Structures are given as C-alpha cells and as structure tokens.
C-alpha cells in the first residue's frame, strides 16, 4: 500500500455525503467516514480527522455543498440565508489555515453571482461543480509545487520536513512532500527524508513518516528536539515545510515548531523553503503578527499518546497549534505559479497575487 493511493477527501458518488479518511487513526487503521451533517463536518475539521490547509479547504467546499443541498426549498432567499449560516458555522471550526475561509468564500461567491439568475436546484448543481473544481485544482497545484521543488533537489539529498504537508494534507501529492513524489516519478531512489515527529499531535510521526515509508523513500523519524543535531551532522541539505497562512511580507504560520526549524536552518546555512498554494497567501494581512493562532486543549499535551496522564494534575499548559516564522528566515516560497524569493512583497506583486 502506498499512501498516495488514499483519497483524503472526496464526494460520494450520489453526492449526498463527504467521505474523509480519518487521519486521527493513522497509521494503524485506514477508515473512511461518511459525513453529511454540518456538526459532523465541523467536528471532523476541529478534531483533525481531516487536516492540512488545502485538505481543510476541500472538505469545507464539499461540506457546505452537501449540507446546503439537503435544504428542501425553491425559495432563493431562504436558501441563501441558510447557506450563509452554515458557511459561518463551518468557518468557525479552525482559525489559522486561510484555505478554510478561502474555499468557503469561493463557494459564497458562486451563490452571490448566480442567485438572481438561477433556480435553487441549478445553484446547488453549480456549487457541486465548484467544490469539485477546488479539489481538481488542488491536485494540479500540488503537482506544480512538487515539480518546482524537485528542481531544487540533488541526488542523495537529505530533506527535513516538519508536521505533514503531504498527500494527506491536500487532495493529492501535498506541498512540502510533493517534490519527493515527483522525484520518485523521475526514478530517483536516493533521497533521505527526516520527519520531525511534531509534538503534540504527531503529524510527522503518524502521517509524514507513514507517507514516505509507504512510498518507498528512505525515511528517518526524529523527535523535534533532534533537528539541531541532525543538521549539525550534515544530514540535511534542504528543508521543505508546508504553510497555513502567509502574510503580505512573507511571514508565515505553520505547525508549532516550524519557526524553530527555520532558525536552526539559518544557523547551519541550510536552505529553508515554504511550499504553499497561492490560495494560502493572505494579502489582507501585512505581517505575521495579524495571524490568529489556534489554541488547543491542554489534554493534547498532557495525555494524548500516553497510556496514562504523564504530567502533574493542575500544571499550567500552553498548547498553541501554530507559530509564525519571520520572513527573514525563508529562502523561498514555492507556489504553483513559481518560486517567490525575497523581498516577498515585490515577488507576490510580480506574480499577480493581490
Ligand atoms: O494542525 P494541522 O495538522 O492541520 O497542521 C497542518 C500544517 O501545519 C501543515 O504544514 C499545513 O497545513 C500545510 S498542509 C499542505
């Protein structure tokens, strides 16, 4: 089995349900959930059953379609009010990845542009098509990112990645791991991948290591605090990470711990690349200071993955799920439209990102 063959999120054939791979059970169990209620889709995103910025966007697009398609009405105003209510609800499931609101707003635009000219039934069908388009585009975008990232690699390279920005985090291929899939397609069999385990939810250990190992890549799992010695030992030639939101100046939010990796890479002189679709670039915010950082339950730190609670009862716990990496630490941002190099504001302008 190759993780690349697993669908992260799709629409059922009868278009009544969204089908997601429950990533909380990986790598031990491969189980698909069939969801049609807004509350269940919200919970699946909140609980990271579907996770990774682009995959969350696809889930939200299919989710808003599936939920609103169930409303039995021919009244356009009633449909639009219901759509707005459910859109705001799904948008509240997680705050940091911009792809969630990006995808929901794109679906909202379809409603706004067609509500005067279409029947409710026609609009529902148009929403289904738009959600499919978001998924299909994500696959093509990830491949482009993969191709551009692949061109930066050399035979025998060691690549360090943090969290999971692979096929499981997107519709297919991923962003940070896409260059490795493209390398495999090109017959390369001599790359080495170092996966940070990524405390506290272990996306690196459970997901990236699973993806890379099942794809046949030489994969080594390290605890987050081993990145420094791994770099010092000369094992890492390049760092590829994913991203949840990029600000106009290039600061970006990604899984907690990413900024530490970037600081280490700078210290050891290792190129540090962010891999992100342009939909992850949020030009409405000037710097990373404006990015909302999701705070998650303390139990993820004190209990998850341990047979019994390992931290003293009552101890204070911080659990920010993301951190912001300063743009000065980034070598380049690999998007489907090309690689942005500093200064990022000018690069984004040249790429037509507004
Ligand atoms: O909390 P998660 O697992 O959704 O966090 C995911 C990440 O931080 C990824 O690196 C990011 O979403 C990019 S996925 C292509």
Description:
With 354 residues, this protein is of the alpha/beta class. The chain has two domains: 3-141, Four Helix Bundle (Hemerythrin (Met), subunit A) (Up-down Bundle), CATH 1.20.120; 143-350, Translation initiation factor eif-2b, domain 2 (Rossmann fold), CATH 3.40.50.10470. It has eleven helices and 13 strands. The strands form three sheets. It has a seven-stranded mixed beta sheet, with helices on both faces. A three-stranded antiparallel beta sheet has the order 1-2-3, with helices on one face. A hairpin with a 2-residue loop joins strand 12 and strand 13. Helix 2 packs antiparallel against helix 3, helix 3 runs antiparallel to helix 4 and helix 5 (120-150) packs across helix 6. The structure holds 5-S-methyl-1-O-phosphono-5-thio-D-ribulose. 5-S-methyl-1-O-phosphono-5-thio-D-ribulose binds next to helix 2 and strand 9. The site of 5-S-methyl-1-O-phosphono-5-thio-D-ribulose has 19 residues, from helix 2 and strand 9.
